[in-house]
Amino acid sequence: MTRTRSDTESDSPEQTSTGMRLIVPLQGIVHGRGGLILGSLIPCALFYFLQFYLKRHRSPPPEKPPPSSSPGNSAANLAVFPRTLSRSSLSVRGSAGHAHVSSRADSIVREDDSPYYVGLDRVLKDRYDELKNPNGIIQLGLSENTLSLDLIEEWLSKNLSNSILGGGLSISGIATYQPFDGLLELKPAMAGFMSQVMERTVSFNPSQIVLTSGATAAVEILCFCLADHGNALLVPTPYYPGFDRDIRWRTGVELIPVHCRSSDNFSLSITALDQAYNHARKRAQKVCGILITNPSNPVGNILTRETLYSLLDFAREKNIHIICDEVFAGSTFGNQEFVSMAEILDSEDSDKDRVHIIYGLSKDFSLPGFRIGVVYSSNENVLVASKRLTRFSSVSAPTQRLLIAMLSDTRFVEEYLQTNRKRIRTIHSLFVAGLKQLGIQCIKSTGGFFCWVDMSRLIRPYSEEGELELWDKLLNIAKINATPGLACHCIEPGWFRCCFTTLREKDIPVVIERIRKVVETCKTI
Amino acid sequence: MTQTEETTTTGGGRGGGGAKTAMRVIVPLQGVVQGRGGLVLGSIIPCALFYFLQFYLKRHRSEPDPEPTPPDPPAGLHRVQSRLVLSPRGSGGAAHVSGRANSVARQADTPYYVGLKRVSEDPYDVESSPDGVIQLGLAENKLSLDLVQKWLAANARESILGRDLSISGIATYQPLDGLMELKVAVAGFMSQIMEKTVSFNPSQIVLTAGATPAIEMLSFCLADAGNAFLVPSPYYPDLDRDVKWRTGVEIIPVPCRSADNFSLSTTALDQAFNQAKKRGLKVRGVIISNPSNPVGNLFNRETLYNLLDFAREKNIHIISNEILAGSTHGSEEFVSMAEIIDSEDFDRNRVHIVYGLSKDLTLPGFRVGVVYTFNENVLVAAKKMARFSSVSAPTQRLLISMLSDAKFIQNFIKTNRERLRRMYIEFVDGLKQLGIDCMKSSGGFYCWADMSRLLRSYSEKGELELWDKLLNVAKINVTPGSSCHCIEPGWFRLCFTTLEKNDIPIVIERIRKVTES
């Protein structure tokens, strides 16, 4: 019952969520243990106190500032000086105030940047450049791939003008209103690209594709569609640091971490899922689905066919959804086979409506600046709703025209994918070998732009604090921006994500040398 | 008390909207506590209601799903591994979508959207489909696309991948709230559009993928779920979706009347505000569009000052949608809220301007919107939220060079205004021949036409009947006033900027058929 009480007391900041939680825990009582009497006595008492509280506080001005923001707001209120009504005459209540923002905006504004964002910011201000800024910070924190941009550039310089306004295309094809969920011609091109990326093991239906401005928007749209405010998604940790913002900020959906451990190579166990699920149920939280990344970001491993099947079984048993983020599907470099959730579904007809795939061109096609994301779903309701929601994040038409031409050039795409994979593989093995020289091990990974690096040997104390200290040293002494595990909600301290696909081969010795400096200071302590 | 009762009963039945329902349960109680009922009544009634709710839940608890609780998987049946064996419960559970998705997916299209769909299925074309539906429903301007086309043909390639630009300027991650170069260019364009009466600070700009997400973002920032905005009606039909769908914010229409030329009165605002307060709704701001969409009139300086006074008195925000600022065609002067704010320094933090390139630069396909705000907190939050709707980099590069081409822009603005004015005059004249009068308007792509004379019954039903006739008999898609929440029946919005000059006689002829019948 402690929980109910604390909810009641913190009542006004977020009335919606509070109200909902007020009802939900009661149901637990009704359903099982307490029975009717207890279940009605307690809320009566609580209500009495709540109203007593409200009664006492009713005299302050109607614009009661949301408590969550009280320190800042009261400070702001102090700054308000009495002002006159516009054009000379005095306003009676003019001094009333500083215009308040919503409490959700307030919490976004006040949210501290995690080390992930702090690091990215630092790089922006002082980026390494071999010639112009050799003492700048080297970026290993952003999962971006610049290894094969030369191929894209070459294609663009040949075909750019024609693909936007050339051939049979007219100005009204790019300037006027287009369908918000993507051009009809781009969807088949995208479906073709996706199946090409997955080596033709699956085919995608263009009519199940919804295009969005980046995968970020795609994730958010799916969350709006699958969960209501206050519901939750299970997410295996370590997970991609952006999810917290993508999901929690505007949808009000919560993330429940499902911890994976180094002893299992950070692979997902159904037992852990089940535990997290039951735990959430006990707290009367409704779990609406599971969110996975495959290949995993930040670990870089791939979910096996077996795991995918058990995941589907689990989702079916609990009657929940699966969101499968496959943006790295084409950026694999090991010999392990990538299996898309779409392929699993082909053989499991009855579960089509609970699986939703996220894709995009930011990773596999190295075009994050283009902002192209994909929601792929077989669920009719989700499709209708997300198509309607794309009014808030649709893709610019000139970019779509460009991509139609680019993706339809299958010979170019094939060559690009092959070359790109080869280049990722080369740089990956160089980078891992470099780290090994320093005695630093990585989890064996087969996809993605990053290594998941074990530096636990270098941290002291063995805790979050020690990890942050090392991160700080890497950033400020070695001038390297890596993402610490805690930004990814990793439960074991000392793990770091290092992205290597923005490096050139000749940068690797520089990076390794810089890390060596820190490794040596750690040893001498 | 009726409201309390009603919400509590729905609380038991509905699947998805748990959060919303519960909220309403609490809010009306506050009314009781704060005022009339006092403590005793305020606690006995909810107690009794709770008792009944729980009784209801208890009785229905064996039912599989519709409760607002997590769906209870019936425990009895266990299932074997997938593949091979058929799952005994496999067909049982359809995966449920969220309550909000359900309401978005199920929301019936208003005549506005029905009409747009009809046009996309059967568009008029002089040669290939002369019996198709003529579009007068979409606020889009095609009058000056030839100028844009000419510019693009000459400069597109150079501006995306030109001499000083490299592939990494378009392919890699860029600031999600827009390239600084584009912000500077847009600020310049905005002040040029407003005839240099105001200057805009590029660092107060957040770029979004269209004005639609700009409005949604501001709603997220200024109001919490369950709060409300006051909006003078008639207002443009998309606003309901933009503001309400995902943010959970409500719109309270403030009716304007033909007797006042549909201009906004502070009295009406005040009334709506007080009514909302009585209903326990917290009003967080006023949303206006200036030039108004769908009426096409401009807010004069006096009204803007009054509005600001009102907002200050109530301590609420103002969102001023000025996306049509450059598409004026009358002699009346357009005054931006930004100009008013220049002289009213203390109120800067409550004024937010929405702009975009869809109307004034006639490029809706490019999806470029602007949030312009003086409020530091809103600026920070909006920049962070831009991750969900940022503009594609190639498009941004294209626009940087287009907007920086001062000669082109100047020529475009001038020519476009002239064509707009000519088209407006001709279209209004045509309607006049049929005895149909329009509100005098000085901005926008449309006329706000009074067809109340043609209604068979002076009611919303009569209006929809006429709309249906126009769509199916005359094959003309117009937007009925009811889609814009106009309280007087018989008004229609007719957009004329997608027409070509020689289409006008055809449109008038088609309308004549209906007026005669």
TrEMBL record, chain A:
<keyword id="KW-0663">Pyridoxal phosphate</keyword>
<feature type="domain" description="Aminotransferase class I/classII large">
    <location>
        <begin position="138"/>
        <end position="515"/>
    </location>
</feature>
<dbReference type="InterPro" id="IPR015421">
    <property type="entry name" value="PyrdxlP-dep_Trfase_major"/>
</dbReference>
<dbReference type="GO" id="GO:0030170">
    <property type="term" value="F:pyridoxal phosphate binding"/>
</dbReference>
<dbReference type="GO" id="GO:0008793">
    <property type="term" value="F:aromatic-amino-acid transaminase activity"/>
</dbReference>
<keyword id="KW-0812">Transmembrane</keyword>
<protein>
    <recommendedName>
        <fullName>Aminotransferase class I/classII large domain-containing protein</fullName>
    </recommendedName>
</protein>
<keyword id="KW-0472">Membrane</keyword>
<dbReference type="InterPro" id="IPR004838">
    <property type="entry name" value="NHTrfase_class1_PyrdxlP-BS"/>
</dbReference>
<dbReference type="InterPro" id="IPR004839">
    <property type="entry name" value="Aminotransferase_I/II_large"/>
</dbReference>
<dbReference type="InterPro" id="IPR015422">
    <property type="entry name" value="PyrdxlP-dep_Trfase_small"/>
</dbReference>
<dbReference type="GO" id="GO:0016847">
    <property type="term" value="F:1-aminocyclopropane-1-carboxylate synthase activity"/>
</dbReference>
<dbReference type="InterPro" id="IPR050478">
    <property type="entry name" value="Ethylene_sulfur-biosynth"/>
</dbReference>
<dbReference type="InterPro" id="IPR015424">
    <property type="entry name" value="PyrdxlP-dep_Trfase"/>
</dbReference>
<comment type="similarity">
    <text>Belongs to the class-I pyridoxal-phosphate-dependent aminotransferase family.</text>
</comment>
<dbReference type="Pfam" id="PF00155">
    <property type="entry name" value="Aminotran_1_2"/>
</dbReference>
<dbReference type="GO" id="GO:0004069">
    <property type="term" value="F:L-aspartate:2-oxoglutarate aminotransferase activity"/>
</dbReference>
<keyword id="KW-1133">Transmembrane helix</keyword>
<feature type="transmembrane region" description="Helical">
    <location>
        <begin position="35"/>
        <end position="54"/>
    </location>
</feature>
From TrEMBL, chain B:
<keyword id="KW-0663">Pyridoxal phosphate</keyword>
<keyword id="KW-0812">Transmembrane</keyword>
<feature type="region of interest" description="Disordered">
    <location>
        <begin position="1"/>
        <end position="20"/>
    </location>
</feature>
<dbReference type="GO" id="GO:0008793">
    <property type="term" value="F:aromatic-amino-acid transaminase activity"/>
</dbReference>
<keyword id="KW-0472">Membrane</keyword>
<dbReference type="GO" id="GO:0030170">
    <property type="term" value="F:pyridoxal phosphate binding"/>
</dbReference>
<dbReference type="Pfam" id="PF00155">
    <property type="entry name" value="Aminotran_1_2"/>
</dbReference>
<feature type="domain" description="Aminotransferase class I/classII large">
    <location>
        <begin position="134"/>
        <end position="511"/>
    </location>
</feature>
<dbReference type="InterPro" id="IPR015424">
    <property type="entry name" value="PyrdxlP-dep_Trfase"/>
</dbReference>
<protein>
    <recommendedName>
        <fullName>Aminotransferase class I/classII large domain-containing protein</fullName>
    </recommendedName>
</protein>
<dbReference type="GO" id="GO:0006520">
    <property type="term" value="P:amino acid metabolic process"/>
</dbReference>
<dbReference type="InterPro" id="IPR015422">
    <property type="entry name" value="PyrdxlP-dep_Trfase_small"/>
</dbReference>
<dbReference type="InterPro" id="IPR050478">
    <property type="entry name" value="Ethylene_sulfur-biosynth"/>
</dbReference>
<feature type="compositionally biased region" description="Gly residues">
    <location>
        <begin position="10"/>
        <end position="19"/>
    </location>
</feature>
<feature type="transmembrane region" description="Helical">
    <location>
        <begin position="38"/>
        <end position="57"/>
    </location>
</feature>
<dbReference type="GO" id="GO:0004069">
    <property type="term" value="F:L-aspartate:2-oxoglutarate aminotransferase activity"/>
</dbReference>
<keyword id="KW-1133">Transmembrane helix</keyword>
<dbReference type="InterPro" id="IPR004839">
    <property type="entry name" value="Aminotransferase_I/II_large"/>
</dbReference>
<dbReference type="InterPro" id="IPR015421">
    <property type="entry name" value="PyrdxlP-dep_Trfase_major"/>
</dbReference>
